[in-house]
Amino acid sequence: MKFSLRLHEKVKEIWEKTHQHPFVVGIGKGDLPVESFIRYMKQDYVFLIDYSKLFALGSVKARDLDTMAVFAKLLHETLHGEMELHRGYAAKFGITRQELEETKPYPTNLAYTRYMLNVAQNGTLEELISALLPCMWSYWEISKMLLINYPNASDHPLYGNWIKMYSSNEFGSLAIWLIELLDQLTEGKSERELTILEEHFLTTSRFEYMFWDMVYEGEEWPV
């Protein structure tokens, strides 16, 4: 069995709950409160600043030029594609780019990004991928699921562009590349090594669910 199939099976329960989260369902139905989406947009923007660094570190840890080049492409696409979507949304709400960049991360956001950066800086390339992959892979899965369950969701005047971006072939192809690379890198690995990677994947999948929860209602430091 490919390692990615093992991961997908292991994380199924977490992802099913994520697919049923009221924030995700609200995007599909088109009735997500705008204030929740604004929180998401601002928190995800500062999340993506740190997430981009993971791709830069992927280039550093890459073992060949082709892999280095794709990680560089992922970095570029995040900075100039995914984050541009957020900047476009911000402009609709009268939020400046400076305000976006000065957003203070909520506790869950901070914990999530610091976990991934710690893994990326101190671990192997395989560990880096296993920690960052749930974000890309689950977004692709969520957007495809929304199109199936809510066929007109991509036409929504506010949330349609979000669904179109994350369900696109371009975004999906990059997620597939990461999945296939992880499968290649884990061939012949010991069970002990695979268990470490699996734990990273499960941890950041849980953080993904918590991120949706965080922006749906809002989250502040308790003290």
Fold blueprint:
Blueprint: H1 3-10, H2 12-19, H3 22-29, H4 34-61, H5 65-92, H6 97-101, H7 107-122, H8 125-149, H9 160-167, H10 169-185, H11 191-217
Helix pairs in contact: 2-11, 3-8, 4-5, 4-7, 4-8, 4-11, 7-8, 7-11, 8-9, 8-10, 8-11
- Binned strand content: under 5%
Q: Based on the structure, what is the oligomeric state of the protein chains?
A: single chain
- Overall 3D form: globular
Q: What's the SSE pattern?
A: HHHHHHHHHHH
Helical fraction equals over 70%
Number of strands: 0
Q: Stretches where pLDDT falls below 50 for ≥5 residues? A: none
- How many helical elements? 11
User: Structural class, judged by helices and strands?
Assistant: mainly alpha
Largest sheet: none
Q: Over all CA atoms, what is the radius of gyration?
A: 17 Å
For the record, give the distance between the C-alpha atoms at the N and C termini, rounded to a whole number: 47 Å
Tell me, rounded to a whole number, the average pLDDT.
96
